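Field reference: sequence -> structure
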Amino acid sequence: LRAGPSAGTRTRTGADSSGGSVRYPVERAMPHYPDEIEYSDKYMDNTYEYRHVILTKVVAKEVFKLTGLKRLLEEKEWRDLSVQQSRGWHHYEIHRPEPHILLFRRALGTDPTTGKVPDGHAAGGA
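Structure field:
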């Protein structure tokens, strides 16, 4: 993909029926903003369990106002935005192409009622 003739327009080069080169616009997929906050199933590796949370458009705008997408949310902040999940989850990454999707993780074995991390794991999901 290359930048097209006007700013913000992306084009793809392909072949026309005579074998010549043709450029056509490529539409960017619009983000999916649910009517209510959506929660993924949990998935894991050998160290952490993960989940992602898809925010509504209104809540995503609040996240941008709070952080400018320059920092992660603290637990109190994401709970104040109506994100509801058990204890021990940490917002660990901003995925810039989809900033309305919050990425969370917690150490495997974390107590979901207290958020207590098992011995041998760093607090804060780091």
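Note: The CA atoms of residues 88 and 115 lie 4 Å apart.
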